[in-house]
Every structure is written in C-alpha cells, then in structure tokens.
C-alpha cells in the first residue's frame, strides 16, 4: 500500500507516492522516475514491489504541472492519434530536464528528512523517459545518488548540447542500463555511444541488452515481457544491495 503526499518544489506541490516496507526501518531509499504514460496501477506496482522487497520507495508524478488526470491506457496512448496528441501537448510539454531536476532536488531533500530512509545515499531507477531522468539525476546530484538504473531508456544519446550521455563525467554513481533489443529511441549505435561515454568517464557501469521491445517492464504495456521484467528486478535489487553494502 502507498501513502500519497505532496512535496513542495520550487514551482508548486508535486503529488508523490510513498511506499514503506512492513516492519521497522530504516531501509535503502529508492527514487523512482515514472515512464511516459504517467501514474497508474502498473506504475504504482513498481513502488509496491520495491517496498515488499525491503526498500523505501518514492514515486513522484512528473506530470503534476499539467494538473490532475485519469490513468492513461498504456496499450493505446501512443497508437491512438488523439490520445498521443493530448499526451504530447498537455503532459510532455510540462516536463523538461531543467524542471525535473529542480523537482528532484526537492524529492531528495524530502528523502533526507525521512527517518525510514537508510543513510548512505539514494538509488534511482527509471523507465522510458524516467530512465533518462535517472541518469541525468546521477550527474546533477553526484553526492547524493550512489546508484542509478534505467530500463528501456529513450533519448539518452542525442545531438542536443545537453544530451544525457555528455553528462557522464559528472556521474559518481554506479550505473546500470537495461536496453531493449528493439528500440528506435535507443538504437545500437546510441547504446554504443553511451557505453563509450561512461567508460571514458570512468563510471562503474553495465549496459545490458534484453531480448524485448521498448516498454517491456510495465505490466500494462502491449510489449510487457514477464521473463525480462523479472530479470530487471533481479538487476535492480542487486544494484541496490551492492551499493548499500559497499
């Protein structure tokens, strides 16, 4: 079960879901960056699985600037022209690297005040656009984030001057990237470019390709892959445990 709170950011109050394990903490803290379909049962299930596995999870709604909304349909939102147009114009237009990192500062500050969060640093994980933000957060807050995971990321290697892969020299965290074998938003060439950037920067990292399509982790997507999703959990739990025990 989750508790819904609001975290005060520089621009307003962000609805955020808190997931605590049963028993007595503190527990390793995990900041979860949602995918591009927003908060819905399948996204909340990620926080619930983390809590059941012994981790304190924080899941903010990155679309909060667009106002309250009903859960979106992950099976049709990108294929139905009207739904896709609304998603792009109403929701994606409110999310940017600058705004999300400004919000992330508030998320991390909140976690620092939580007695149930184990000291020693925060682990981030993200999916789709959230994977991109997980990587950017590691570069933006290198003294607070000890590990960053990202699964089926999109737009982590671009021609933009603020492309996430160019931030590699700022990252101190251990990084794990789970790439999809079929993903036009993270091609083989882009995977190679990210791997090379992280290697050149001396970042402890692993980039692994899963035999799945972009979006395979979330249970409500048309490309959900149960076996690959379970492997995702094992790699994420391993990353959290290894960085908190080192």
Description:
The protein is 35% helix and 22% strand. It is built from 6 helices and 8 strands. The chain is α/β, with parallel strands linked by helices and 246 residues long. The model has no long low-confidence stretch (mean pLDDT 96). The protein has helices at 41-52, 81-91, 97-113, 129-140, 188-200, 226-245, and strands at residues 2-8, 13-19, 29-33, 56-60, 122-127, 145-151, 174-182, 205-213. 46% of the residues are buried. The longest helix is centred in the last third of the chain and has 20 residues, at 226-245. Strand 3, helix 1 (41-52) and strand 4 (56-60) form a beta-alpha-beta unit. The radius of gyration is 17 Å and the shape is globular. It has an 8-stranded mixed sheet, with helices on both faces. It has one domain (2-245): Alpha/Beta hydrolase fold, catalytic domain (Rossmann fold, 3-Layer(aba) Sandwich).
Globally, the shape reads: globular
Taking the sheet with the most strands, its summary is:
8 strands, mixed
- Name the CATH superfamily classification: Alpha/Beta hydrolase fold, catalytic domain
Low-confidence stretches: none
**Cα separation of the termini:** 30 Å
Radius of gyration: 17 Å
- Compressed to H and E, one letter per element, the order equals EEEHEHHEHEEHEH
CATH architecture: 3-Layer(aba) Sandwich
Tell me the number of helical segments per DSSP (H or I, 4 or more residues long).
6
């Amino acid at each position: 079960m989750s508790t819904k709170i609001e975290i005060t950011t520089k621009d307003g109050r962000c609805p955020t879901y808190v997931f605590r394990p049963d028993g007595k903490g503190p527990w390793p803290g995990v900041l979860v960056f949602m995918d591009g379909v927003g908060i819905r049962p399948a996204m909340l299930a990620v926080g619930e699985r983390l809590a059941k596995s012994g981790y304190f999870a924080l899941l903010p709604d990155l679309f909060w600037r667009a106002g309250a909304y009903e859960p979106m349909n992950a099976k049709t939102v990108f294929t139905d022209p009207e739904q896709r147009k609304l998603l792009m114009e109403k929701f994606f237009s409110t999310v940017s690297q600058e705004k999300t990192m400004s919000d992330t500062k508030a998320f991390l500050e909140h976690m620092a005040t939580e007695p149930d969060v184990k000291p020693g640093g925060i682990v981030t994980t993200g999916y789709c656009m959230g994977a991109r933000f997980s990587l950017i957060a590691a570069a933006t807050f290198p003294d607070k984030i000890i590990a960053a995971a990202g699964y089926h990321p999109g737009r982590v290697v671009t021609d933009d001057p603020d492309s996430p892969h160019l931030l590699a020299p700022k990252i101190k965290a251990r990084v794990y990237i789970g790439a999809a074998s079929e993903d036009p938003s993270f091609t083989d060439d882009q995977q190679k470019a990210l791997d090379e950037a992280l290697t050149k920067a001396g970042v402890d990292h692993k980039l692994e390709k899963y035999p799945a399509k972009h979006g395979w982790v979330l249970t409500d997507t048309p490309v959900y892959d149960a076996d690959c999703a379970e492997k995702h959990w094992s790699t994420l739990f391993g990353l959290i445990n290894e960085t908190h025990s080192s």
